[in-house]
Design brief:
Layout: H1 14-23, H2 25-46, E1 51-61, H3 72-86, H4 89-99, E2 107-112, E3 118-125, H5 128-146, E4 153-159, H6 173-198, H7 205-211, E5 216-221, H8 229-233, H9 249-268, E6 273-278, H10 285-298, E7 303-307, H11 315-318, H12 329-333, E8 344-346, E9 351-354, H13 363-367, H14 370-382, E10 385-389, H15 398-403, E11 408-414, H16 420-432, E12 436-445
Parallel strand pairs: 5-12, 6-10, 6-11, 7-9, 7-10, 11-12
Antiparallel strand pairs: 1-3, 1-4, 2-3, 8-9
Helix pairs in contact: 1-6, 2-6, 4-5, 9-10
């Protein structure tokens, strides 16, 4: 059995919760609509309309000129007894006999109007005509049951009963539907929030420091690719590069800090080849690799950026280099062209690059070739750093081959994207392969303004609780 995850409040991300709620808005709407139909269906199955006939009677003394008892207290007492008579089984049997039925299909009830000598008599039945007949029979036959109790008292009609025309138990179906929809939507939201909170991913920097088995080098904020509403609607996205004037200062600063840490660490350990990878797709490893290469080039380093994610290359898109006249990396690896036909120097960027323009299926064949080893060997002689943009570790075995040729590995972890256990397993595999592990970079992190305003992009150094690096 797996280890139970410890729950910590500082690992809750409001952004992740809100994103999950918005992302699953269709689930919330579906729950509300389902509740509407459910209430309507249940109402149609269980609702039985009932009709109520009513009459108002007054308790009076027989032969009294005032037509009422002189004492209201005594009148109330008499009214109470008459009310019991109407509720009695004896009267119900007399009514059934009068209507020629074995039993009456309706409920008889009576109530005394407080501080008066009046009684309200009601009969409820599923049949409006039946309700009227029962109340009429009750009024006509009550004296045969009550004469022996009060021979000097009589009931006089104040309001005659009529045949009811509409149900007396009308449901406020609109209100019930609204309550049902609100309850179902609320329950769906609660479940979505619960799943979001319990999902074991890296949602906050505190969670990263606590749960990742390795050092967190830097936190790179989320950067929107489309800067305008028009661009968003037209899906015109610009590449996120630190050399672009459209890229935010926070993003640029964090990438430069990351590059500085990598430069310091790799120089101290006499390392040249850095592999940038991630566990899953769309975590931003290609953008991080490209920008780290640019940041190192800004520092005056000779940097070669190689797109070694041969299955799904992305660097040529990031840098906007779709020129079909230029050769791809695989053309060199197959021996079709010379190295100088693949490796180009971007003068305005101060960066050397070797890109792949289309995906290949048998990527292992190319990466495990003698030309790939020759490329890295030649690069080590003339370059300060070589940056390898590799495939995600969970999708291909390419990374295992590249680890044998690289000096150190950087793992990109996107906010609330990949299970922490998968990330730590990948880090363990890197260490077990014998490769050096630089650590993690947290990517595409959103600002948590309610928790840490003004402290979103601080540097966090961290050594994991299971694996602690020893810097010598």
């Amino acid at each position: 059995m797996g280890e139970m995850k410890e729950f910590n409040l500082d690992e809750i991300s409001l952004f992740s919760i809100l994103r999950d709620v918005v992302k699953n808005i269709w689930v919330i709407l579906l729950a509300a609509v389902t509740a509407w139909f459910a209430v309507t269906g249940v109402e149609g199955l269980i609702y039985v309309p009932e009709y109520t006939a009513t009459a108002t009677l007054a308790v009076s003394a027989r032969g009294s000129s005032s037509n009422a008892y002189s004492s209201l207290t005594l009148t109330n007492q008499m009214a109470g007894v008459f009310s019991e008579v109407f509720d009695s089984n004896v009267l119900r049997e007399r009514i059934a006999e009068d209507l020629g039925q074995e039993s009456i299909e309706g409920e008889i009830s009576s109530a005394i109007i407080e501080e008066t000598n009046l009684i309200t008599l009601s009969v409820t039945s599923v049949n409006p005509r039946q309700a009227y007949l029962i109340i009429q029979s009750a009024i006509e036959n009550y004296d045969s049951v009550s004469d022996y109790l009060f021979s000097n008292a009589v009931l006089r009609m104040v309001q005659e009963p009529t045949v009811p025309t509409s149900p007396s138990n009308v449901l406020n179906l609109s209100r019930i539907r609204k309550l049902g929809m609100a309850g179902a939507a609320g329950l769906a939201i609660c479940l979505i929030v619960l799943v979001s909170v319990l999902r074991f991913t890296v949602k906050t920097k505190a969670g990263a420091r606590r749960n990742l088995d390795g050092r967190v080098l830097e936190t790179v904020p989320y950067e929107r690719k489309s800067k305008t509403v028009k661009g968003l609607l037209q899906r015109k996205n610009h590449s996120i590069l630190i050399t672009s004037a459209l890229t935010s200062a926070g993003y640029v600063e964090s990438v430069r800090k990351l590059a500085t840490q990598l430069d310091h660490r790799m120089r101290r350990k006499d390392q040249q080849v850095l592999m940038v990878s991630s566990v899953s797709e769309n975590e931003g490893k290609s953008s991080i690799a490209a920008n780290v290469a640019l940041a190192l080039a800004e520092k005056g380093k000779k940097v070669l950026l190689i797109d070694s994610d041969l299955k799904k290359p992305a660097q040529y898109k990031i840098f906007g280099r779709p020129d079909n006249t230029q050769s791809s990396l695989t053309d060199y690896l197959e021996g079709k062209v010379h190295l100088n036909q693949v490796m180009f120097y971007e003068k305005e960027l101060g960066l050397y690059r070797a890109f792949q323009k289309y995906g290949v299926h048998n990527s292992v064949k190319y990466l495990d070739s003698e030309n790939m080893r020759r490329l890295l060997s030649s690069g080590r002689k003339v370059m300060d750093y070589i940056i390898l943009d590799s495939s995600p570790t969970s999708l291909a075995s390419d990374t295992q081959l590249l680890m044998k040729m690289t000096d150190t590995v950087l793992m990109v972890v996107r906010q609330d994207w990949t299970d922490v256990r998968a990330i730590n397993d990948a880090a363990d595999n890197i260490r077990q392969s014998g490769a050096d592990f630089s650590g993690f970079v947290l990517n595409a992190f959103h600002r948590e303004q309610l928790f840490a305003p003004g402290h979103e992009y601080r540097y966090y150094g961290y050594h994991g609780h299971r694996h602690r690096e020893r810097e010598e």
